[in-house]
Amino acid sequence: MDIVLVPGLWLDASSWDLVVPRLTAAGHTVRPLTLPGPESAETDRSDVHVADQVAAVVAAIDESDGPVLLVGHSMGCAVAGAALDARIDKVAKVVYVGGWPAEPGMIPAKNFSTDGADMPPVPWEEFDEADVRDLDRATFESFLRPSPASLTTEPFELGDERRYAVPALFVCPEYTAADLKGWIAEGAEPTAAIPKHTEASFVDLPTGHWPQLSKPAELAEIILRSVG
Hints:
Helix content: 25-40%
Distance between the termini: 10 Å
Domain AB hydrolase-1: 3-221
Mean pLDDT: 97
Strand order of the largest sheet: 2-1-3-4-7-8
Largest sheet: 6 strands, parallel
CATH topology: Rossmann fold
Low-confidence stretches: none
Order of helices and strands: EHEHEHEEHEEHEHH
Strand content: 15-25%
Organism: Nocardioides luteus
Protein name: Esterase
CATH class: Alpha Beta
Number of strands: 8
Shape: globular
InterPro entries: AB_hydrolase_1, AB_hydrolase_fold, Sec-Metab_Biosynth_Hydrolase
Radius of gyration: 16 Å
Number of helices: 7
CATH architecture: 3-Layer(aba) Sandwich
């Protein structure tokens, strides 16, 4: 199967480097993506938009020969969900790691700080201890570069409600599946899309917010089990 890996804020394709070999060894074609914007610290992000990031994932899906397993991380979950909306018939399943899809009109990154056209990475000191569990600071920071500031102001546009019928797995790293189900029950706005899924499952992966860096073997195993 083709597996498309969508990184979250401040990360590029290299953030999946410890996961990819385990997936390719199992015989899958793996496409780790660098979305428009975080290519380098020097990238001009002044004309990079949410639609550009979604289009990059759609392009990767279109390059695939068969059904796609789509994997998103953090903010990349919203981007992956929008790409699913655009290519319902090509995606067999979605794995959302440390995040969830957006509903139409949502701006998941609206509360992040910006600096001109950039959304700088949050400083290590400002993360909760649970977020950075099992991570080495220097290694983690070596992956980071700004994301486009447009992500803090531009809503996601979606239009095909068949996306709710695509099987979805929600991987819970710095929080538990019980926590996530509690937020859903409380009607927390960021999780509004999840109860609309007709086939949703949940799995705990106890670590920090970036399991592709802190627990890559365990995350790869979860992804492989999703292939079935």
